[in-house]
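Reopening this ticket.

The earlier resolution said the output was attached, but the attachment link was broken on my side. Pasting everything inline this time so it's all in one place.
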Amino acid sequence: MRRHWGAAAVFVLAVALAFMGAVYVFLWFVGNAQSSGMVPGTLGFWAMANLVSFILYAVFWELLLIGVPIAIAALVAWQWWKSLSEEERRGYDFGGRKRSAGGGGASLLFFIAFCIKVFVDGKWNVPVATFTLDYVVGSMIAILVWCLVIFGIPIAIGLTWWIRWEMKKP
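Inline output:
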């Protein structure tokens, strides 16, 4: 690390600049989305169409203005890393056991399913503030049942097949 402290400092600075840039781009996008009329200024008037388009456009601008420069910087860093000798690279141990908490996919799945349910029910351009608690809870129960059917049946078939296979072993 002593030989490459400058590279480490540049890395830390790049991470800080990327984080600050991402926050700035998001604030810029939020201000423009409201002033351009893409979304209502009051959250109570947002419809699912506003929410989905807001998320998609925000992701697009973040990827374009922050993600592309990060990808280019990562390529430059990778080329620098490859230019180091094998002995020098072995001096840095980035290995070790990696632990992942996992999760997070279920929230996205439920959000997408809720968007589909709202669209199918014809409430796509209706302000979210008008949704009743009964509608939201009923939708969540329906989505839970859909997910259990869609994922539960293949899991049950696979588990049955695996148990049958294990029972046939001597």
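Reporter confirms the inline version is readable. Residues 101-170 form one domain. The chain has two domains: 1-94, 101-170.
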